[in-house]
Amino acid sequence: MGAGQAGLATAAALIARGMEPQRDFVVIDRSPRAQRAWSERWPSMRLLSNAEHSSFPRRPLEGDPYRHPTPGDIENYLHRFEAELGIDPVWGVRAVAVTRYGTGPTLCLKTTIGEVQTRNIVCATGAAARPRFPEWAADVEVEGVQMHTNAYRTREQIPHGRVLIVGGGNAGVEVAFDLANSHDVTLAVRSGGTEVQARRFPTHPRFSPWRRRNVAQEPPYDALRNRGVRIRDATTGAQGTEFTFSDGSRQTYQSVVFATGYVAGDEWLPTLPQLQRRIPTVTALPGLFVAGIPTHSHAKANTLPGVWTDATRIARFIHARP
User: What H or E segment, with its residue span, contains residue 74?
Assistant: First the structure.
């Protein structure tokens, strides 16, 4: 389930094990035809990692390996990879639930168009399937617009006036930079805007992974302050147009952008006790696996290089199942 990077990586790993798409397995996705999550990101967004570290192993992105790709670059990359694999995904079908069929090894996948019986199911619906909002978001009633960063495309969407961006992570910082020249912007962050962390990657794949260099600083609050963006404490609540912050202060804003992250697309998985000795990608239901979601695997499972590890492991398990 899922035709994004996790689903395509798993398909590639199954093909490498001798399985044929559309005969031995099928890829299903809830989105309208060929509209992956990358198409929902704003065009000016740039990945933190450069192109060299933003692709599947041995399948590099085209162009300058040191550039920072856009969502469009990744979307096109996945379309090409899908064609290369010969995958014909079934679009517009959402998974609802999965249960064991009887007492045997067969699983029953319930979808929006009916039930499917199969021996193996891979949840590849992504770590960023749906926008996450704070509980108090329902109390917001601003004069301008309120939106999540997944709906943000250009600064023209935001009317002039004071804009509050809730969330000081990478998405919030990028939108703040985009709006800084045209709007009165405030960025609300949990850290107080004092911590700057460095992201590090190997200098070359043939070098030891311990030889690393800084390629990006996050988040660059000082640079935002120089652009006129106000950095203030975390937002804790709202009532209409008035927002409350963790330092006890209040302020009204005309528009608000929630840069509060996403939730994984694993809501359709059964709630089962975890295995005593937890194995990444493996669930307590035999034949049910999860790819590309860090909480079910490892910290970098939601990246293109990281999900390849998940996919390879899952294909090995499926191939070895009796």
Answer: helix 71-85
